[in-house]
Amino acid sequence: MSDSALPRLRARTRPISDPGDLLRFAEPQDPAVWLRRGDGIVGGGCLWRGEFQGESRIRDAREVWDAILAQARVEDAVRVPGSGLVAFGAFTFAASSGYASVLQIPQFIIGRMDGKSFLTELFVTDSTVGSGPVPTVPVRLPLIIPDGPEAVTDLEPGEMTQERHREAVECALSRIEQGEFTKIVISRDQHGKIEPDADRRHIVRRLANTYPETWTYAVDGLIGASPEMLVRVLGRSVTARVLAGTLPRGANEADDAAAKRALADSAKNRVEHKFAIDSAIESLRRLDTHDDPDTGLTASPEPFLLGLPNVWHLASDIRGTLPQGSSVLDLVEALHPTAAVGGTPRKKAMPVIDELEPFDRRRYAGPAGWLSASGDGEWVVALRGAEVDADGSVTAFAGGGIVAGSEAADEFAETGPKFRPITEALKPLAE
């Protein structure tokens, strides 16, 4: 994509009074959303959209973004994460996917971060426009869009039936025993259909309200509430959250406490978690080619138990400093796919996923998030959600890590609670 084909953009961010529910300003059919605990950013309209495919899709997106920034003008009077010129993005899990990875820039962004509310207005200019400031006009909030029809459907099993899943897990275990790899993630699919004119914001709102501690995302029809932060860059500070090892929550207090203890004591889940942590740290260290003592990485000495309404996870946080000359998309490319959604070793496990899963994962378990002209960005692993197509078709995925000692029946059962967030978000409000 040549620079001449890219838009010349101006972005102006100004403070506003607290706008309340940010979702009221999102597009009903194609919301662009990033929320946690009620705060975040929402985009409206689409000023520019780029599509990328193949092995270099993330690298190509970074080059295009850099080219857009090189000819953009940004006036940011707020300067918090998510202000200024921002693009939302979602990348496919596999390079071989037949679906597009995207970056898209909205016509406006309304947000609330760090106690500050703001509105970013974006404009396409041409080369004849001077370098002076954008003319000052009063701040006018975008129109609030009333709620449309509910987005409801029952998800039904897809191509990966329970029997087919059992066969895939047993094949994976055999190949683990032969030493081909030590871990692989096998997922299954579910499908449904909402009305084409249904308001997708209903799905986003239910996820955000039910799972406020996760990162609720909506980008180009990909909607979910992920508990796993692939990478966050604020300034030069880098953080990532790794999840691997899962058990369902108990039905009552005693059962829940027992499930929590069982996960903490599970040798199988701890091994799975260690694979994921080691893989993430190795990926980040390979990226740092500079002699920079400030980029050292630290991880939680022991995994902690993260309780969500549907499951317990073993979790660890990684912290470090952005290597000089790197961007958040460089980190996204280095980390994806994590061992938590791919396998170990990565290069051995990925082709086998293609063999054992009878579908294209699309952007499930791929990176989804945002990045800004200031260099900030937040990207999750796209979990606990679904692809919602323009015609209303809904495709959801959930998976689990297979290591030595895994049981096929247990692995199939583990995916049930992972479908629960999107399944419940698609139920009628009366239920």
Automatic annotation (TrEMBL):
The keyword rRNA processing does not apply. Residues 162-418 form the Chorismate-utilising enzyme C-terminal domain. InterPro entries: ADC_synthase, Chorismate_C, IsoChor_synthase. Coiled coil: none annotated. One of its GO terms (molecular function) is isochorismate synthase activity. Its EC number is 5.4.4.2. Keywords: Isomerase. It holds the Pfam family Chorismate_bind. It catalyses: chorismate = isochorismate. Belongs to the isochorismate synthase family. This is isochorismate synthase. It comes from Gulosibacter chungangensis. The lineage of its organism: Bacteria, Bacillati, Actinomycetota, Actinomycetes, Micrococcales.
